[in-house]
Structure formats: structure tokens, C-alpha cells
Design the sequence.
């Protein structure tokens, strides 16, 4: 469910280069997949654009490659693997989970955990210390316990 | 002559800012009224000096003085007058002078409006602002001076990046900077409080208007930037998780947390240390946002190395401000203490939850933005962190806050019960369910239905507090109306700002239903997209003062009636040898008809047409949020009747 929600919202902020309509795949389902794939890959010659957004020639070439591979029946993982093998991890806009990116992917959990721990610690510190008994009360306790 | 006067004024400003800081801080330490008063007077002088330097720079740009380096690099004699003026802050040097001018204005504003503050606190705030200003003015003067001359004088300038020659971007930096720099005042209050060792309800009440005003300006600035990206870049998107965008989002997030935690300080004298830390963090992020982005360090370590003097100066300065305030915090924060106790389920508890989630989002955005730099330095690995990562991590953290903020608003202070609070919102839940159900049935899609239900819950639920306060339908209507008139402005402000957030959420969800089509058609042909017929009537050439353009005339029809004529264009800027796409957008209020012209091939023009459902709501919502913030500043409770300070609370500085 969460994965689905994320996938859907990832496609929401869709942005596209003015490309040649001849590039697009005739099958809308394949084109949708190709577009989603292109948005996960970085245009290596631009500052911070995905392959789908960039008007650079490099991005145009990658768009064509993605569509050829999607048309040939490759699944998403195969296309991404092919791209990473050729252009390195830099091409992925969402880095793979690895020893190098564990801190990155753990950051939401660590942040929430730290927030929760801070609240618990602050509350514990805030607990007012028990008020010591007065002499009269102590006398009363002594009488009641009969010692 | 004028640039030299400006140069002199800039140097004078460094001296005046330093004097402002020394007089005010030493005066406060010795409780000497004359020294403190001269600190305030120097704040005005310092503002006039920076203002003169800035005016000199504008004068040089407007009169095409190409003996000034900065004007040569960023202007051109054919550039329209508006962009000659706004071009002054379109580059590193000029924008930093603007930044310094805003900081100087903050000091002058505290000196002018802060007369009801205790004089020692006021002097400390003015002194700390002056110290910051002195550092950044020195940076401008030594490494980024925009008023230097160039010899031999070129005949004409190199012009400005055409993407920046746009009204949206003309006003985006001043708004954004006003927001960034405004957070210097809460920061200065926080540092002053640490020096005094005292944070109380009165402090919360003094800080909040500054935080609110800065937050409102920042909200407006970010929205304007996002809108600019939407119509000027012509990609159809509105937020790209670019490092520059993230840098402005970070202080907005911690600033939002600060606004809310300052309420707890004001009403209940709790969360004091946390609020002070947030004030320091927000300004620190504003600083890093402005200067790291401008220095280019975020893009690559190499661009930083290409100009080490500027980079090292700014790093040392950032380290001094951020590190210095954090060390002061670690040393003095234990003296602040906390008095207000509250149960986990209460208004305070809800605000703590808000703070945890919003700050977690900030941590994630911060980590994601800096991770490529970190990975390169530590592992020697080159990797990218972009939109897919941020969408996947930020959205799950944002959703709980958005759903909970409606409930938090109606919880009472100190101790509350969740069940009754939820029951009192049954009508908002009903509306949300109805909206969700009708979207689900109409579109046969589950996720947009959930999104719209959430947005409806937020928009309508935000009025819950007002309805509770006037006890609508539980007491006679006339009495409710009378209560409505008596509601403090701050309640309205919170409702409006929260509902604005809901409208933005609706816009974002609506954009997920956007449709687009890329077509190659000849004049006379038409295509259908989202119940509209888009006809290409023709293509023609045009020209502006510094560009030539190719324009497509498109008429959009619905059921045989003309809706609008769109004129997307491609512009070639002669001096910069750069092409830009000019989108043409028509908004119906519920959707944008968005058109972009691509290349022409074989007599056919490539057009990209978008039907962006609810797109305008994203920025309308942000505008409403910003309005809510300003409304809250206007609440007269913030100006008069601030609770009197209890004298015995102050802890003497060690």
C-alpha cells in the first residue's frame, strides 16, 4: 500500500522535456512505464534533471534506450541495472540501499527515534521529585506501623 | 564617482555595524543606558550606509555604467529597465548586499518597534544583529564586492541569464531573503535569552511576531519560486527537490516548528530550551541556505575549490555564527529550565508531535541534500539523491502531521482526551468521506480519492476550533454570532493558515491527475486533450528589446466555443546565445491549460499540451498560508498587554 502510494505520488510532480512525439511508444502502458523509469534516472550533463525533463542530447539518447528496452520486454530492474552498469550509481536519482547509503535511508527512522527519545527523557527529567515527609507525618507513619 | 561613494558606504557600514554591536552589547553588560541608546542609533546609521551602497549599485546598473565589474557581468544596455533593477540581486555579489540591507533593516526595526522591550534585552538583540551584520558586510567588502571598477571599460555588458529575466524571479529573491533574514531576529532573541539565562512567556510573545512575519515572507518567497519554475522552465512540474529548493525548504520547516513551539512557551512556559534551539537552527539553516547555495558547494566539491577564498571565508563565518551560538546553547541552556507540565494528549502534546514530525522531515531533507557531498568525501562514491528519494521519505512523514493538525487545533491545554475531540469533528470526517467516496466512484481510483479526502479533512476540519469556540448549534445562534465577533485574530489566522495548507494539498493531489500530450501538428490541425480541442492556428516571428522569438497561436475550444487563445513561444537571446521556452498558460481556477512550443520539423510544430487539474490551488494555498501568518502578526494581543516580566527569574550570567 505504502509502496503504491509512493509510486503514485512520485509520478505526480511529472515534468517533461519537449520531445519528439515520434520517440514515444505507441502502447500507453509501455510509455507510462518508460516515463516512470526515465524519472528515476538522472541526466548526467544537467544540474538536477531527470532524463524525462532534460532537453539535452544525452537525455534524449537515454530516453530512446529506455523505450527500446521497455519495448523489448525488459523489466524495470533490468533497465536500471543496465544503466547503472554503464553510467555508475550516479545515474540513479534514488540510490540503492547499500552500506554506503544506509545512513541516508535510515535518516527518517533515526530522526523520529531521536525525537521520541528526547520527549521521553525530557518527561522523565520533568517528573517532580517526591516531597520529603514532614516530621509530623513521619511520626504518624511510625505510630501506624506500630514500631 | 557614484560607485566609489557606494564602496565607501559599504566600508562605513562595516564600521557602523561593529560599533552598533559593541555599544549595545557592552552597554547591556554594564546596564549603561547611554551606551545602549547609542547602539540603537548606530543601527539606523548602519541601515542608511548599507542602503546607500545598494542604491549606488542600482544606480550603476540603471545608468549602464559598464566600468563596474558587476554591471558588465550581469547587465546589457538593451535589457529592459525592470530587469536592470532586479538584475542587481540576480547574482551573487548584488544579492549579498541585498541580504545585508535586510539584516540592517531588521536591526533598525528592533530599534524602532521594540521600545516596549526591556532595554537590556533590546540592546542585546540589536548587538547580536549588529555582530552578524559586521561579519557578512566584511565578507561582501573583502570577497564579493559588487562595486569594483574594471579597466579597460567594455562597450557593453554580457547580459543576464534570460531565464532570470522574468517578473516572477524579479521579486522571488527579495521575498525569500526577507524571510531568511527575518529569522535573524528570533535568533538574536534566542542568543540574548541564553546570555540572560531567562526565557519566559513574555519572551515567547516578543519572538512570535518576528517568527510569524519571517515565516509568512518565506512561504510567499518559496511559492513564488515554485510558480516561476512551473511557468518559466516549461517542464510542467512545480517542485524538483533541487538542492536550491531544498535549501529554502529547510528553514521553512524548522521555522514552522518554531512558530508552533513558541506558542507553547507563550501560553504554558514549556518547551523553552527546545524553542531556543529551533530559533538557532532556523537562522543557521537560512544562513547555510543563502551562502552554500550561492557558493556552489552543494553541486560539487570542485566548484568550491575553484574559488577557495570566498568559500573559506564563508565557512569560517558560518562556523563562527552557528558554532558560537550552539556552544552558548550547550553552556547556558540548562539555566533556562522548564516549568509547564502537561499530559501527552493535550494541545502542548499535539504541538510536540508536530515538532517531532516536521523536524524529522527537515532532517531527511537535510540528509538527502548533503548526502552526495558526504558520500563523495567519505566513501569517494559519486551518487545522486533526487526526487524519487524525497518523495518516498518525506510523504510518509508529512501525512501524519497533516491528518493530526486538525485534531491538535481543538485539543485543550494541559490535559485532554482524544476520543471526545475526534467525536467533535464528526462533520469534517463526514465531508472528507463524502469527497473521498465521490472521487473514488467518479474516477475509479483509490489513491487520488484518499488524497482528496485528506485535503477536505484539512480544509474543513481547520474550522473546527472556531466552531468549538462559538459553540455553534449548542447555544442560540445569536450568541454564537456574538462570540464569533469576539474571537481573537490569532484563532482566525491559525484556521486560515491550516486551511491554506489543505488547499495546497488538494492542488498537489489534483496535479497527480494532470494529463499531457506531446504532438507534432501543422497549422490548421487540432488535437483533443481533457475535453478541450487545441487547434494550432499558425506560427509567426516576433522580437523584444533583447531577443527574437517564434510564437505559436493556439486556440482552445470546448463544445464548439472558444475558451482562450494561447501563445507559447521559443525565445533566442542574442547576447547570451541561449534559447528559452515561454509557456502560455490559461487558468480556469480549477485547472491550468498549459502549452509549450517545441521545435519545428517539416512544417510541423512540436507542441506539449497539459491539462493541470487544480494546479493553481498549490500557490493559492501557499498565499493563504502566508496571509494567515500576517493576520496573526496583526493580532493586537501580540502588541499590547504582553505579560509583564517577573523580575526574580533572571539568572545572572556566570
Sequence:
Amino acid at each position: 500500500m505504502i509502496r503504491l502510494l509512493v509510486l503514485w505520488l512520485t509520478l505526480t510532480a511529472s515534468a517533461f522535456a519537449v520531445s519528439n512525439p515520434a520517440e514515444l511508444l505507441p502502447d500507453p502502458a509501455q510509455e507510462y512505464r518508460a516515463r516512470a523509469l526515465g524519472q528515476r534516472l538522472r541526466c548526467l550533463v544537467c544540474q538536477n534533471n531527470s532524463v524525462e525533463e532534460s532537453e539535452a542530447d544525452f537525455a534524449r539518447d537515454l530516453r530512446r534506450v529506455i523505450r527500446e528496452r521497455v519495448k523489448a520486454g525488459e523489466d524495470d530492474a533490468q533497465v536500471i541495472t543496465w544503466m547503472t552498469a554503464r553510467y555508475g550509481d550516479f545515474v540513479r536519482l534514488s540510490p540503492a540501499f547499500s552500506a554506503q547509503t544506509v545512513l541516508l535511508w535510515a535518516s527518517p527512522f533515526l530522526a523520529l527515534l531521536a525525537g521520541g527519545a528526547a520527549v521521553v527523557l525530557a518527561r522523565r527529567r520533568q517528573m517532580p521529585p517526591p516531597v520529603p515527609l514532614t516530621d509530623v507525618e513521619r511520626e504518624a507513619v511510625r505510630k501506624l506501623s506500630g514500631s | 564617482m557614484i560607485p566609489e561613494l557606494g564602496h565607501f558606504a559599504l566600508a562605513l557600514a562595516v564600521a557602523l555595524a561593529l560599533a552598533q554591536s559593541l555599544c549595545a552589547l557592552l552597554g547591556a553588560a554594564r546596564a549603561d543606558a547611554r551606551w545602549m541608546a547609542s547602539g540603537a542609533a548606530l543601527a539606523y546609521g548602519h541601515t542608511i550606509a548599507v542602503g546607500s551602497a545598494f542604491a549606488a549599485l542600482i544606480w550603476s546598473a540603471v545608468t549602464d555604467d559598464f566600468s563596474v565589474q558587476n554591471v558588465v557581468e550581469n547587465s546589457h544596455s538593451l535589457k529592459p529597465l525592470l530587469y536592470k533593477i532586479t538584475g542587481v540581486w540576480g547574482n551573487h555579489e548584488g544579492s549579498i548586499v541585498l541580504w545585508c540591507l535586510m539584516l540592517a533593516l531588521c536591526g533598525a526595526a528592533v530599534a524602532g518597534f521594540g521600545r516596549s522591550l526591556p532595554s537590556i534585552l533590546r540592546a542585546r538583540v540589536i548587538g547580536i544583529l549588529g555582530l552578524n551584520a559586521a561579519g557578512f558586510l566584511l565578507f561582501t567588502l573583502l570577497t564579493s564586492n559588487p562595486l569594483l571598477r574594471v579597466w579597460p571599460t567594455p562597450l557593453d555588458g554580457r547580459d543576464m541569464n534570460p531565464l532570470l529575466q522574468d517578473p516572477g524571479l524579479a521579486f522571488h529573491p527579495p521575498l525569500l531573503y526577507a524571510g531568511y533574514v527575518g529569522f535573524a531576529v528570533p535568533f538574536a532573541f534566542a542568543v540574548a535569552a541564553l546570555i540572560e539565562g531567562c526565557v519566559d512567556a513574555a519572551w515567547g510573545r516578543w519572538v512570535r511576531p518576528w517568527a510569524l512575519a519571517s515565516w509568512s515572507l518565506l512561504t510567499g518567497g518559496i511559492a513564488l519560486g515554485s510558480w516561476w519554475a512551473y511557468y518559466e522552465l516549461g517542464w510542467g512540474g512545480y517542485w524538483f527537490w533541487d538542492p536550491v529548493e531544498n535549501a529554502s525548504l529547510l528553514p521553512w520547516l524548522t521555522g514552522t516548528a518554531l512558530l508552533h513551539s513558541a506558542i507553547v512557551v507563550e501560553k504554558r512556559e514549556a518547551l523553552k530550551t527546545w524553542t531556543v534551539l529551533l530559533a538557532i537552527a532556523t537562522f543557521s539553516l537560512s544562513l547555510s541556505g543563502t551562502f552554500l547555495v550561492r557558493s556552489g558547494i552543494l553541486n560539487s566539491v570542485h566548484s568550491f575549490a575553484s574559488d577557495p577564498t570566498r568559500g573559506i571565508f564563508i565557512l569560517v563565518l558560518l562556523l563562527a555564527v552557528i558554532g558560537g551560538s550552539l556552544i552558548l546553547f550547550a553552556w547556558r541552556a540548562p539555566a533556562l529550565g522548564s516549568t509547564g507540565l502537561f499530559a501527552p494528549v493535550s494541545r502542548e502534546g499535539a504541538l510536540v508531535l508536530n515538532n517531532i514530525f516536521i523536524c524529522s522531515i527537515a532532517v531527511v531533507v537535510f540528509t538527502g541534500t548533503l548526502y552526495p557531498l558526504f558520500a563523495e568525501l567519505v566513501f569517494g562514491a559519486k551518487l545522486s539523491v533526487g526526487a524519487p528519494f524525497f518523495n518516498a521519505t518525506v510523504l510518509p512523514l508529512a501525512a501524519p502531521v497533516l491528518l493530526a493538525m486538525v485534531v491538535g487545533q481543538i485539543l485543550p491545554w494541559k490535559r485532554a482526551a482524544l476520543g471526545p475531540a475526534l467525536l467533535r469533528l464528526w462533520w469534517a470526517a463526514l465531508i472528507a468521506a463524502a469527497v473521498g467516496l465521490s472521487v473514488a466512484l467518479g474516477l475509479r481510483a483509490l489513491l487520488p480519492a484518499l488524497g482528496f479526502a485528506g485535503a477536505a479533512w484539512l480544509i474543513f476540519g481547520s474550522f473546527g476550533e472556531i466552531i468549538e469556540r462559538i459553540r455553534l448549534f449548542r447555544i442560540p445562534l445569536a450568541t454564537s454570532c456574538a462570540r464569533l465577533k469576539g474571537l481573537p485574530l490569532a484563532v482566525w489566522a491559525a484556521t486560515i493558515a491550516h486551511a491554506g495548507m489543505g488547499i495546497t494539498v488538494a492542488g498537489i493531489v489534483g496535479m497527480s491527475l494532470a494529463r499531457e500530450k506531446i504532438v507534432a501538428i501543422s497549422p490548421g490541425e487540432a488535437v483533443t486533450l481533457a475535453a478541450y480541442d487545441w487547434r494550432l492556428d499558425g506560427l509567426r516571428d516576433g522580437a523584444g528589446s533583447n531577443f527574437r522569438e517564434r510564437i505559436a497561436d493556439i486556440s482552445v475550444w470546448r463544445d464548439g466555443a472558444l475558451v482562450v487563445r494561447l501563445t507559447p513561444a521559443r525565445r533566442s537571446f542574442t547576447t547570451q546565445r541561449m534559447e528559452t521556452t515561454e509557456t502560455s498558460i490559461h487558468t480556469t481556477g480549477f485547472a491550468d491549460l498549459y502549452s509549450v512550443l517545441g521545435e519545428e520539423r517539416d512544417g510541423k510544430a512540436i507542441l506539449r499540451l497539459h491539462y493541470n487539474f487544480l494546479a493553481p490551488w498549490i500557490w493559492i494555498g501557499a498565499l493563504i498560508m502566508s496571509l494567515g501568518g500576517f493576520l496573526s502578526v496583526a493580532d493586537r494581543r501580540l502588541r499590547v498587554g504582553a505579560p509583564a516580566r517577573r523580575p526574580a527569574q533572571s539568572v545572572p550570567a556566570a
